[in-house]
Design brief:
alpha+beta, 31% strand, globular
Length: 160
């Protein structure tokens, strides 16, 4: 697990909300506080879509909603002249990116927690496993993958 302080908040938020950079992630949870607090539960509700579309969509993600499906809604909530007071997004990385690892079946979630408050913007990584392990190899690989993603998108950060 690492915590990264994002140097250019506007650049990062543009990537998160206005581009498809994170669309292959899924959303577990979001909290956006403006004039009111908006909570989004990212659990995917298959009853909303017809069964044919749902079965096609479900093959590509876990039990949470793809970020690309809710990104526009989050953008609409924060549009306007005022900066939000607080935002937190809990995203899951795709386990398919690590399918060649022996511990793949034990990975419950590859987490990226994005938190904005008056002190700035931080990205914290984490992993959740189905079984206990003293091996932190998955953690290290996930931390490296998140840092590489940010570097490839020219997002400056400082490791805390």
């Amino acid at each position: 697990m690492i915590a990264l302080k994002i140097q250019n908040v506007k650049n990062f938020m543009n990537l998160l909300l206005m581009t498809d950079t994170f669309d292959h992630f899924t959303l577990e949870d979001a909290v956006i506080k403006t004039f009111a607090t908006f909570n989004i539960d990212g659990l995917y509700d298959s009853s909303f879509f017809d069964s044919e579309q749902d079965s096609e969509d479900r093959q590509s993600f876990d039990s949470y909603t793809p970020w690309g499906l809710v990104r526009h809604n989050c953008t609409e909530i924060i549009k306007g002249k005022h900066t939000p007071v607080f935002m937190k997004y809990v995203l899951h990385g795709s386990k398919k990116d690590f399918s060649d690892l022996p511990e793949y079946a034990d990975i419950k979630a590859l987490l990226m927690i994005i938190k904005y408050d008056p002190n700035g913007l931080t990205v914290t990584t984490g992993t959740s496993m189905n079984t206990f392990s003293l091996d932190h190899g998955i953690d290290d690989l996930w931390d490296k993958a998140v840092k590489e993603l940010l570097k490839n998108k020219d997002v400056a950060f400082e490791e805390l």
